[in-house]
Amino acid sequence: MSLLTWSALLYAALTALCLSLNRHYRDVFNNRPIWPSQRALRWLGFTGIAGSLLFCIASAPDGRSWVMWFCTFAVLSCTISMGLAYFPRFISLAGKTAVTVFLTAVTIEFSF
Amino acid sequence: MAWLHTWSGLVVGWLLLAIFMTGTASYYRSEITAWMHPEIRPSAPISEAASLKQAMDWLEQCAPDAASWLIDLPTTRLPVTQVMWQGAGERRYNSEWLDPASAQTLTPRKTFGGDFFYGFHFQLSLPSQIGRWIVGVASMAMLIAIVSGVIIHRRIFKDFFTFRPGKGQRSWLDAHNTLSVLALPFHAVITYTGLITLMFMYIPWGVDLVYGPDRAAFFRDIRDFSAPQVPALGRAVLASPETLIQQARQHWGQEHIARVSITAPGAVNARVELFRDTLDHVSSQPQRLVLDGVGGEWVGTNPSTGPVKAFYGVMYGLHLAHFADPLLRVLLFLSGLGGCAMIATGLQLWVVKRRGNSRRGVYRHIEGLNIAAMLGLPTAMAAFLWANRLLPGDMPARDIREIQAFFCTWLLTLLHAQMRLTQHAWREQAMLCALTCGGLPVLDILTGPNPINGLNLVCGLLGMSFAVVAWRLYQPAQQCIPQTRAPGSRPPRSERHS
C-alpha cells in the first residue's frame, strides 16, 4: 500500500467522521444526515481510520510508519477543520475525490 | 482541574512558545546551517568512498600526528565533509570543512547556523545546567497542561473538527481545542520524549545508585563509548578507504556511513570505527562497526542493547527525528507549527476571556507579552538570518553579533508591544514579521549562491501568512460576538426597528 492509498483512505474516513456530526453535516448540506445515516457515517469513519493505519503499518512495518501516520492524521484533520470553517461546500467534493483516489489506487496496486 | 490546566499552561506559556518555535525550526537545523554558510556550494552527489578518501588524505597531510580523527561525511542536507582532529593531550577537537567536490578547505563565515536554534530549544542560551532545568520545568508543566486539558475537555469528540472563525473568544477557544486535540499524539510524544532526553539530569538517583560517583562509566555504557587507543610506538600505514568502505558494505549495504572515527592513526594499533546513519530506524543509537586500522579486518560491533537502552534510543530518536525523510520532515514541521499555534491561542484565550473591552491595566501588558512571543520571536529569528548576511564576513566575533541581533530584536519587539496600544502593536509587529520573513528570499537572491532552496520557500510562505494576518488586522474591527442581553432588558435600537 502506497502513501497515496492510505492517506486517501484516511482523508475519506475523516470526512465521513466529520459529516457524522449534525453540526458539520448541516454546514455542508444544509440538512440532517438521512443516507448514509449518522451511525453509518461514524462507523465508516472509524473503520476507515483503522484501515488506513493498518495499511500504513503493513506497507512499511517499522516505527517510522507510526510517526508518519499520526502526523498525516493531524495535518489532514486540520485541513478538514479549516475547510469546514472557510469552504464547507468543498468538503463533500474533496471526500468523494479521496474515495475515488483510494479505490483507483487499490485497484491499480492489486492489478499489478 | 481547569485551574491546573490554565495555570500550568499560562505561567510557562511564553517560554514554551519559544521552546516550541525554536524546536520546530530545528527540524531544519542542517538546512539553516547550510543557508547561513553561502560559501557551501551545492554539488552533485559525491560517493562516500570518494569523500572518505579526500578526508583521510587531507588529515594525513595536515594532522598526521593527531591522537584521533573524526570524519563526518557529507549528506544531501549539509553537503560538506567535516574533518576533526584531536592533538595529543588536547581535550577539544579542531575542525575544518572540506568541499566534497574539490577537496579544498572551505573558509566559511563564523556563525552558529541552525545550531543556535537547536541549543536555544533546550538550553535557552543560558549556562547549560540552569537552562536545561528551566526547560525541564517548563516541559513538565506542558505535560501537566496536556493531560489536564484532555480531562477537562468533555466534548472532545463533538468538537473534534469545530472551528468557528470571527466569533471572538469562541474562535480562540475553538482554535485552541482543535489544534490541541487533532495533533494530541504529536504534542504528548514530543513533550514526553523531550523530558526523556534529559531525564538523567532531572532524575539522577537511579544512576547514582548503580554507578555511584563514577558518572563517566554510566555515559560510556549508555552512549556505547569506548576508550581511545593509546598509540603504540610502531608506525604502520592506515587501511585504505576502499577497504573500510568494503567492510561497511558487507554489513550495511550501500551508502550508510555517517561518521568515521580513527584513533591512533599511523600507529600499528590504529583502530577505525564506522558509525551507520540512523535514517532507516527510529532509534537514535547508531550501529557501530569496529575495524583494525591497519589491515581493515572486522574486530567487532557495538554490544547488543538491553531494553532500557533500546527504549532510551527510541525515545531520543522520536524527539530528534533524524529518521525523517523530506515528506515526514514537512509533516513534523507542520505539526510543530500546530503546537506553536496551540500554545499561542491558549495564551491569547486567557487574556481575551478576562480583559473584556478594557485596553488598559495588567491584561494589556500580558497581551503585550503575547505579541512579543507570537510575532516578536519569529521576527527575531528572521533578524538572526538577516544579520548572517548583512554583517561583514571578517567582523570580529561575528557569530556572537548574530545572536545579539536576535536578542536585541526580540527585546525591541517586547518594548514596542508594551509601549504601543495593543491593536497597533499587533498590526505593526505582524507587518514587520511579514517583511522580515518575506524579505529573506530576496536577501538570499542578492547575496547567496543558490536562491532555489527550501528555506527560502518556507520563509516566503511564512512572510505571506503574516502579511495576510497583518492585512486582516488592518481591516476595520467588526463586532462579531452577538451582544448578550440580560433577561428582560430592551434590545438595542437597531434591533427594535428591524
Automatic annotation (TrEMBL), chain A:
Pfam families: DUF3325 (PF11804). The chain crosses the membrane at residues 42-60, 67-87. Keywords: Membrane, Transmembrane, Transmembrane helix. InterPro entries: DUF3325. This is DUF3325 domain-containing protein. The lineage of its organism: Bacteria, Pseudomonadati, Pseudomonadota, Gammaproteobacteria, Pseudomonadales.
